[in-house]
Amino acid sequence: MRIIKNTAIIFALIFFNQIFAQTPGFQGDPEKGKEIATGVCAGCHSADGNSIIPINPSLAGQHAEYITKQLMDFKVEGDARAKRDNPVMASMVAALSVEDMKNLGAYYAKQKTNPVPATSDDESLLELGKRVYNSGNLENNVPACSSCHSPNGAGIPPHYPKLAGQHTAYTISQLEAFRQGSRTNDMNNAMQMIVLRMSVQEKKAVAEYISTLATN
C-alpha cells in the first residue's frame, strides 16, 4: 500500500510540474546570460557550463527554470538561512538580480553537454547504480531515480533536474548535502527522505551510473 501511495504522489508531482513548466515568467535572454557566465561563472563551471572540476557541477544543457531556481535558493535574504547553504555560491549570487538568474538559466540551457570522463570501471558498481536508478530499492522504500529524473537522466522541469553526464563527485556531494540538511530546497523534502534510506554504496553507485548517461 505504501509503494502504491508513493507512486501516486510521484505521478501527481510530475503532472503538476508539466503544467507549471508551461507557465510564463521563466524566459531569459541567453546573450545577456553569456556575459555573466563567461565572466563571473567561468572559473568554476567553464565558459560553456561544461565544468572540468569534478566537484563543481556541469550546467550545460540544464533546464533554464531549474538553474534560475537554484541560483535564487543560494541567495541569503536578511537573517534567513539559504535553502542551499553554500558560502561560495552565496557570494556569487549576492549581486545577481532575478533577471540575471533567468538570463543565466537561458544561456546554460542552450549549451551542448560534453561527455564526462568515467571515474570507475567497476562493472558491479555500475550495475548496482543502474538497478537503483531504474528500479529503486523496494525493500528500503527507495523509489527509482528515473521516476522523477527520466530513464535517460533528462529530468522533468522545473523541479527535477537533468542528471545525465553529471560528475560523480558532485552528485555524491549533493546527496550528502540532502542527508545533512545543508540543502533543503527539494520539493516536499523528497530527496532528504530518500537519501536517508540509501546505503553509502547505493549513493556511490547511482552517482557513477548517472555520469554514464547521455541525453544529447
From TrEMBL:
Post-translational note: Binds 2 heme c groups covalently per subunit.
Entries under Gene3D superfamilies matching the protein: Cytochrome c-like domain
Keywords of this entry: Electron transport, Heme, Iron, Metal-binding, Periplasm, Signal, Transport
Secretion signal, residue range per the UniProt entry: 1-21
Subcellular location: Periplasm
Main localization of the protein described in the UniProt heading: periplasm
One term under GO cellular component: periplasmic space
Listed InterPro entries: Cyt_c-like_dom, Cyt_c-like_dom_sf, Cytochrome_c4-like, Cytochrome_c_Oxidase_Subunit
Binding site residues for heme c 2: C145, C148, H149, M191
Domain of life where this protein originates: Bacteria
GO molecular function terms attached to this record: electron transfer activity; heme binding; iron ion binding
Binding site for heme c 1: C41, C44, H45, M89
Pfam families: Cytochrom_C
Residue ranges occupied by any Cytochrome c domain in the UniProt entry: 28-112, 124-214
Stated name of the protein: Cytochrome c553
